[in-house]
């Protein structure tokens, strides 16, 4: 029994709005039925008394169904009204069998209530009508003799038929409820899953009504905005602890107005701590079937960190990481925009003089401190609105709009500002710069004006530094020559070195015997067309580009190979060493390795010539570096002696073996008693220090004779021979050409 009961519908489960709609429909139908029955009774065969009673009984049911407060009573009134209407219709039809079909229609209609009260009331009332009225007024209930003779039997038959019709309605009703229960269970399960997904997701989420009322929010949303779990009634989007920043701030209004999902990025200020945050809001509007907006679903992401990271990356792209000035790329972009204006633009290009000595002597960290201090100094001089950038290394550039005189004035102010030492880690460090200035107009000339200023800066540096040069067209010629020299040298170093960069030799002659006792190796360049170029055409480019290092290695190796080849005829070979070579950390190990490849060679037969300029420009401890070289067994010659500011000091402090007197002391020696006195003093000092002396630039017989008389042990110059290729020099060694030349003057 219990199993069957579970199959029966429970009834009364319609939602209020659904029940109200169905009840309104059935009440209207009942009222219409009353009208139809009244018209039928007035025009049909029925009597007026039956019609009157029918109307008097149905109309109160209609009124009660409209006015009673309890919905079950109202539905029972509708059921009773349908029973009276159907009974009146049968009576007015004089019991016509087909008129009884009205009861079956009423059963189906009342099943819409899905409630046992109106349904049961109709079944009971219908059965009573057929039984009672069939006995009392059978002629108005049934239209055949059998029913009139046995009214109870036919009442039972009619009641059973109505019951069967009702039964099928109950089955349909039960099946519908079962399906609804399954749908409800599925809906509740889905809602539970969605609720868990909504509440437990770490992404802040919220649902808003179209008027901004906060309908629901998850824990992440409340935690993000520091809201309590229980919000006060009427809490809206305007009550959130966020103040929008900027003009286009009506994010919620845009979300409501957009028919499609919308992603917005907005900046807000938190009212609780005043912090500025960036929020990415993704809103999704949800509409009902009629296209009306029900609510807006929003999930929010705090993208402050990523936004700040992007801003920092953009700042790093536009600014130099070391100094904070504009980067090269940002300067090029801004310069093009500045040049596109109406006024001309002046570019001031500057480079720190001898900056490499700071890096090599004190380390790159100290060099970075100098660059930062220099950037601060430049920032204080360059006016607002001008561009200031670090292009890389120790090169800076500024650009200012206005007449060329303004750019020149700014360059002079920068140069003047360098007269004061820089404050670097509590120390006062003097720094000088070389500055080039150029002016141009038009964005298409951005590269040209920077190159022109760079060219002028190099002119200032070649002129000694700590000065300013304004670009002139003839400077382009020197730049092109420098670039051409650099290209030729690169090509030569990439070729067969003995052919592209051959060594020539100038003899060193003894003043006592007139014999060749040594030679100075001097590098030349052979071009692809066979021309021989002197060092004047490429040594400068080699020094500036750093190619002097591989070039010097080649000269050393080639000089040693020639020295070994001429072992029976030549005492030694001297090789010039540039400041760049001397400062290289690998110079001494590389030379030691080279000497180790020729174990039969006496290292003292190799002389390294160091100029006083090289000693001054060197970034290393000169005495220590030269002492290390001497431990290898090679000899040191102090070249161009007498051209510097403190030659005697170097003579005392440098562990040299040979002093080479500069040609400026030798030329005209025979006619200048003061030069003779200086040379005599130097010869005496060198001898007292255990050094030998060579006089360079001897070109006249009188100077040769004077040097002999002064006791200078060796000489070198065009009087004997200019630098010659190895074949010609070898012939001089074998044939004793120098002795023959001397015989003409003795």
From TrEMBL:
Domain GGDEF: 343-473
Occurrences of domain PAC (ranges): 262-315
Record-annotated membrane-spanning stretches: 25-44, 50-68, 80-113, 119-139, 151-175
Pfam family, one: GGDEF
InterPro entries recorded: Biofilm_reg_signaling, EAL_dom, EAL_sf, GGDEF_dom, Nucleotide_cyclase, PAC, PAS, PAS-assoc_C
Ranges in a coiled coil: none
NCBIfam families given in the database record: GGDEF, sensory_box
Name listed for the protein in its UniProt record: Uncharacterized protein
Species annotation: Actinoplanes ianthinogenes
